[in-house]
Amino acid sequence: MSSDKLVIGMPAGSLADPKRGGNLIDFLKHAGFPTKGYDQGGPTKFPLNAALLGWDGRPQEFGAQLGLGQLDIAIAGDDWVQERILEYQYEYQQDIQLEKVLSLSRGNVRIVIINNPMTGGDSFDDWFTALLQRKPLVTMVSEMPYLALDWFRKKIDALGFADSHSGYSVQNYMTPPKISQGIVIYETWGKTEAKVVHEAVDFGLEITQTGSAIRNYGLAIGDEVMKSETGIWANPKIKEQPEKYDLARMFLLNLYGAIFAENKVLLFFNANNNCAKEVLQYLSEHRLFADEPTMNAGKNFTEFSIQMDLDNTRLPIAKVRYELARLGATGIETVPLDSCIPSFDAVDF
Question: Which domain holds residue 76?
Fold first, then answer.
């Protein structure tokens, strides 16, 4: 790990593709961290911030890299970070202490258990119980084998099969089982549904947004393992390095400002002092300012500025502009926000 720079895990793949994941590139730019090279496969540089060092990689690996200290912080999904944490626990008996320090409010997915449809109106637990009673060794397929294993061990404990099925083996797809009792989890890369629907395995763990692919295969969602989103994860040991920790706080606070500003605009307008009182009353009645409105009073006119949420269905921006104009406001301008930082304490890290 660099001792004088903040090392940031930058996820390769769709997020780095301007045609698919350009929102991350734009998001970083709005936060004040434009990138160079990220959209071309790297190496990623931050031309305006020499103290930031981009480490291009796969989000599947960032959890391990954070734990080893190769990265200070990383942009990654909760699911992949948790997968690496669990891998270290199950395979190496080590605990990685990582901390999610900021949600990026994007990349939402569900991690679910999928199986062939059940008959007779049985619940998933009924189906699963019957499977465990029938087979001393069950098989499963997943891109995230340790999330799958953790779910399985909790499930068999809850259903009373911990003694008979606690054994496990994580293997490449369709390699000969290393155990005779418990669960074999085949690690695979894609098309989990096909392996389940053709009964190559008993069930699987899948990543989904809408569940449409699962339904298209005629499969059922038996259980939900977790919800996941893209966020900023950190190695807490960074707090032991004051200068680097301050860089992380700066990075996070500006990212938060870009998130907070999404779907928000500023309205600037003028009002003749003869109608300024009515305009102020309207703003107050509709709670269009926090502690006090921003006003610049002149000899004949007062300039106002207010912040509005474009997703506010209770008070749509079009209606506000119309009613302000009706009250006498002029020169009503709508300015998009790239960033809005409420206070230094907006980020708790």
Answer: 6-98+235-261
